[in-house]
Amino acid sequence: MYITFTEGYYNIKGEPVNVGGMTFKLVEDYKVAKSGEGYVTVEGGGNPGFPDRNIRIKCSQGAYNVAGSAKPIPQGVTMLQALKKPAKAGDAVVTDMTQIKVSDQAVAHETDAEIIERTRLRFEILKDMTKAVKGGDVRAMIVTGPPGVGKSFGVEEVLSKDDLFNTLGERKPRYEIVKGAMSAIGLYKKLYEFSDAKNILVFDDCDSILLDDIALNILKAALDSSKKRTISWNTDSRLLRSEGIPDKFEFKGGAIFITNLKFENVRSKKLQEHLAALESRCHYIDLRMDTDREKVLRIKQIVKDGMLDSYEMEDVARDEVVDFIEANRATMRELSLRTVLKVADLRKSFPTNWQNMARVTVMKGAY
Predict the structure, then answer these.
(1) Is the entire prediction scored with pTM above 0.85?
(2) What pLDDT digit, counting tens, does each position of 263-279 carry?
(3) How far apart are the first and last CA of the chain?
């Protein structure tokens, strides 16, 4: 069960950080210490910059809500009692894939330079780990980060380097990137197709697999780091028989699962348990860009590295694109590198009216 603070403080490196607007997993309800200060015990590891252990947030009773609801916890009512109350019309509905929104306060203790360097290092690690999967030294990994920040590009760039020779030689590529929804039997068939050693399957934005128990169990087997990974289809299937696919096989290939879900920020307890089982089976890379501030800094870093060079923009025009996105980040439909390209397209095509065009096409509720 999760709570969102309206106000509260936690000391990081000796500095009090305001956790207002941040959501944590509740460990123990409100108590008063001998000093007279009130506090709530929560899990800190779900938010960047906070220690990966139980921590005490100093606050007053009633300074936090049930996550997903704007209704405060009444004085004298425990969190458990509040959660037992029946839902009312108008209360927020939390679906299995709903994630916790992380406030910029979570990284208030880091400088811009520290965040940019941390992000750059994690993307370098992502490339190195992809090379390890390609070489067979790492069997499987999960990559998580917000949409449109370059997760897939980094992985595909590494995998496509040497596979050009297979393409020119009209041989079957040794890797494939699977996108979108996939059924359990479709997942089983695809894993069988790429089950040989040195083959790699990349699942990109296939989060629907996580909501299908059969598909999820198959994915768990594929992402397992054990020496022998046996994948089974335990029910009779005319489709598999007709295509000559056995009901059991050994998966020797590599697997990379790329997702927009930050596992510890998923609100559904049932789904969290499944995700924890996946995380324990293989390497897990969290790119740690949970706040809008981190995403904006990633955008600035990539633009500085030459992302918009092909547009042949003057420095002033390029800066205008980035400044526009930063100034309107709270109302962007998606705060991502894709949005940068969309705004850059408008800046180039409509030099006198591009901002109005952008407000209509990439922002929410501008007009």
Answers:
(1) no
(2) 776 766 777 777 888 88
(3) 37
